[in-house]
Amino acid sequence: MSDFLQLHLLTAYPPSNLNRDDLGRPKTAVVGGTERLRVSSQSLKRAWRTSSVFEEALGGHIGTRTKRFGEELHARLLAVGADAKKAEKWVGQIIDTFAKRESKKLVTGQLVHYSSAEMEACRDLVDTLARENRAATDDELGGLRGAAGAVDMALFGRMLAENADANVDASVQVAHAISVNPVAVEEDYFTAVDDLNVRDDQAGAGHIGEAGFGSGVFYLYVCVDRDLLRENLKGDTDLWARSLRSLTEAAATVAPSGKQNSFGSRARASYILVERGPQQPRSLSVAFLKAIRGGDPLDDAVLAIERQRDQFDRAYGACADDRDILNVNAGEGSLGAILDFVEG
Predict the structure, then answer these.
(1) Which of 222, 228, 264, 279 is the most buried (most CB within 10 A)?
(2) What is the distance of C-alpha 2 from the center of its chain?
(3) How many distinct structural domains can be found in the chain?
């Protein structure tokens, strides 16, 4: 039986466009027959893994997602005088170890998530190839893949279509955040003035545009398999603890970057319920199947979450061994206590 950590967060965002669809409007979802604002899990995970929270706590243990690593390796070989054709062939073999290339170019057909250790191993290998003027052996190529120490990979997983043996099962499941209240996406009509327009015949806007926005209280659910995370990190207990703390802090304090300069919509979670135990996980999103209308949506959402938690406990027995709460409006709990709890 796995040891699960479940996070339930409520965060109130003012007018914002945190995560845009293909038309540039805020993403939405219909829940319980009502349109809600939505922030995708992909957007959230990228915001967290590239945040200063992760960098400060986990610097050196964060991977890189790219198609273009082969170009760096090729340039590295050319810089020390390697033959261009040989360099392209040698780098191609290295890149193929992770994913197939696009039409034999030095870019991969899919984004590859490399750990920092893997990238350094590739750089060391091309230095060896340049020095010894030869191609890599099968053993050298096979030894390049190893994700140990890449926290974001241990948390969010890795999928390499052509090299399944290098895949990493994600230890964290992140739901799409949805607003607990119904929304109507609005349009901000804006103009920009050309500062060099000085005559009457130049009066008017230099640019006219529209930007969609909405506001709401968002419910976010995150589930962590703490045992799988420890396994992915090869039993590194210190890194495991820092990973749990960083993930929790980022989820509570890091806002997606979408249109932040236009809306200044940074926010922190006003409510966090964290649960720990081996019981089968469950989201509390059903508490918001009926949209919250009128009143104070944040306070009403807190009541709805806690009521739903208690109802599940009555129906199924205790759904967690232990719990802790941060409630900013009620002056209850602290982020520090929550972070201590998640690694306990």
Answers:
(1) 222
(2) 23
(3) 2
